[in-house]
Fold this sequence. Notes:
Blueprint: H1 10-18, H2 22-31, E1 43-50, E2 56-61, E3 66-70, H3 74-80, E4 83-93, H4 103-111, E5 116-124, E6 130-131, H5 134-142, E7 145-152, E8 154-155, E9 167-170, H6 178-181, E10 188-191, H7 198-211, E11 217-221, H8 236-239, E12 246-248, E13 251-254, E14 261-264, E15 267-271, E16 277-283, E17 286-293
Parallel strand pairs: 1-4, 4-5, 5-7, 6-8, 7-9, 9-10, 10-11
Antiparallel strand pairs: 1-2, 2-3, 11-17, 12-15, 13-14, 15-16, 16-17
Amino acid sequence: MTIPIRRLPYPVLREIFKQMDPESLINFIRTNNSSIKLLPAMSASVSVNYHNKDPFILVTTASGIQSELPFGYYRKVMKVFKWIELDCLKIVVSDKFKRKSCLRLLSLLKHCKFTSCNCLMIQSVEEGVVLRKEAIMDITKQLKTINEMFIDVSMEELPENLDPALAVTVTNGDLLADTEIMLLEAEEILVESSRIGDTGANLIIKNWIAHGESLRYLELKLADEWKLFDDDNLGMEHLLFDLDFQVRGEGRFETKHLGSVLNFEDGFDIQRDDGKKATITSNQQVVRLLIISNP
């Protein structure tokens, strides 16, 4: 004999619903409009994979049960779950990616009232794709807090509102000038490629001395033609130009968000007027600025 689900005791129903996958929950409420009244208050996290072909969302319940759903199902997800967190927003762009292509995604962010995101990823489907900042500004304006950001696409320039992230990784910064890197106000910044030389790195360090607030760690790979520690130590005089520094010995630094540990043999200590201290280290083409202590 089959017992109708509506006749089961509510504590039993609640446990059943909590163990169901998101897609099954959506199918359940589609059977009858009043079925949604049976659902307990549940939470879920959502990861959005947005691209021109078949974008989708990955929904994970508090019990760790997942369903991959078409992008258009987000309204149904809103009906099933009372609390929804945007875990990851991945945007894949191509040379055909236009600002209007973001309208559906903007509709999702606005409808779901997402104001924060644990991770924002911007990737390209192929090399040579250049993304205009206007194509992404509207999306980042919707998100007041971005905990971690990965930029794996060439951008003309960075939108000014990319500053709330705790950690920013720029995998392709070949089109960014030193002034664009200065726009980032994250706690930890990793720039894996750039067109910047030792003079540009010097200006970025001076910008932190004059204006830096939240920065705790900066790792910047200089352009291929720049070598800091070659046989003649060429480049160090430009990197340290017009800076008051003291040579220091070995040390250790651990990032909070990027998950890296740096052991260095020597460096150069600098100090701001407000008492904040930092150490500059370098190895071949990589320059690092470590904010060691606060006053």
